[in-house]
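Protocol step 6 of 9: fold each sequence in the batch and record its structure tokens directly after the sequence line. For illustration, a two-sequence batch is reproduced in full.

Sequence one:
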Amino acid sequence: MRKINRKIATLLGSSTLAITAKVKELKSKGVDVINFAAGEPDFDTPDFIKKAGILAIEKGFTKYTPSTGTLDLKEAIARRFLKDNNLQYKPSQIVVSCGAKHNIFNLVQVLVDEGDEVIYSSPYWVSYPEMVKVAGGTSKIIATDIKTNFKITGEQFKRAVTKNSRVLILNSPSNPTGMIYTKKELQDIAEICVKHNIFVISDEIYEKLVYTNEPYVSIASLGTDIYNLTATVNGVSKSFSMTGWRIGYCGAPQEVVEYIQKFQDHTTSNPTSISQMAALAALNASEESIVKMREEFSRRCDAMCSYLEKIPAISFSRPQGAFYVFCNISKLGLDSMTIAKRILEEVNVAVIPGEGFGADQYIRLSFATSMEQIKEGTQRIADWVQKFSSKEKLVESSK
């Protein structure tokens, strides 16, 4: 076999994508699988957005655009940042890429050099460690748990900082936990970043899916100093159910954007022209479709949590945003991969093991599916846990 780049050779595949592929395979064979593995809304892209994409094709808007996006789309994004986050970005400070993931990858590659430390908390989104590996950086992971609602404190962050710390990745609302940082928590973190000149990549892709009455706060909005040290990442994938359209964006300091542009010039060139026109229609529209989707996700969250509360061997912290419940399964005494594999094979319910998120005592359940599926799927899990627990007791009593 040919010699493979050592950084690429060490990369781990995405557990979420692998299980999603397995679910599709089983469904194609007629297996009745309940899918709690989904990392995308189950709603269709709104019709007015699809029509904008079709119109772009009909009008021949199918050629190259500037590599970091059209001016019209950047202006719409700038208006959104100002309206939603109180962030003033010029169009020249905005990069449009092939999804929020692409933006984060670009930022890590531009900001992180060999040996630089990138700080983030566990549980983390599965792609963060692999992005850092490709850049040659070192992941400095701060462990959190259900007792602290999976959030790092200012004190924890302060202890983690070293002379090699360069970047902090924040994800709020979080995938996989659904937690959201408060303004005070962000202020504590921002103060440390400014003191030590640590750049923040703020992953805010689930910003529109929040189920609390507290106003959502972007860390970059907390003052000029932290604004100048932050890239705010967002996109249309979750809020407008446009995951396959692959449009994400970020606002960042001018110098950082210029380097991202150079990098993107030589990788993807521009995001799809047709998708950019669809995203422009989405961002210029009212939030009616978002509100409806958020209300439905809130109801589903309530339902899933109420069913899971009845399973004694499982515990969780109620999510404040996104569409996941992160469940502690440590009482079952097996690792998350084994639990996920057995639940899928024995009762046909797909969940994501916490191992890929740096939390092997947990599994992630998505409520991006119907109420009927949520009820049926959680009941199957409850039945499986009861049967499993009974067998374990029998084994123990026979020893």
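Sequence two, same batch, same settings:
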Amino acid sequence: MNPEILALLESSSANRTAVLGNGRRIFLKRRTDVPSDFFAAEAAGLSALAAARALRVPEVHAVCSHGIAIEDLGRGQPAEFDWEEAGRRLALLHRPTVARFGFDSGGYCGDTAQDNRRDTDGHRFFAQRRLLAQAQRAFDRHRIERRDLERIESLCARLRDLMPESPPVLIHGDLWTGNLHACTGGELALIDGAAVHHGWAECDLAMLTLFGEPPRAFFAAYEAEARVDSSWRSRAPLLNLHHLLNHLNLFGGSYLAGVRATIQSLA
């Protein structure tokens, strides 16, 4: 670990860009209000994404209990080609399969701790580690009512009928459009990797439609490379219920209507 970068990271009080003695630019992310493994989870996720050699990922230069120093990717404007290439490369990320769902360590989806204990059953993993975990948290915090929890439990009981069998692949896990970052030259990169784990590929596709979405060229390139059709869109609301519940837990009642509308549509 570079002593110069580590010193900058430990002395920083907020997010900022720094220039090293050799002229290289790095981005320092710093928070003191997070668990001690928060940035280690991001570093582990980014490392797994980088090892896949699909989309670009910022290099991790240093990590400590309350911060991470990563490559500064700059900021640019993607062209249609960049979107097409990103769609194709996301399909490449999702191509290799593994034996079990989960990850070797826990993670974070936003600020919410994520249980990544391994499981060979994808429906059980998504039901227990994602939907029910978020729903129970929301109920315990009085964000949803008993009837809401029971309806989510009913959805989980029918999950095998609602979601086709699919093998575990490496996914970003929190892939809203803001985590598909346009670099200086327009190339798109994956950032904020704390939610990375092995899960259903459709989880990444679904979240890319939750808060805005990439151009159609992105999805067309993905579907062509992955040799799938657009039927995944019909299942996106179910998969995104996890993220709506997470946002309800993190940010409050403005997401309750979306949670309930999704539950009702799937009833």
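Proceed to step 7 once all outputs are recorded. Observation for sequence two: Strands lie at 16-19, 25-30, 60-64, 67-71, 107-109, 112-114, 169-171, 180-182, 188-190, 197-199.
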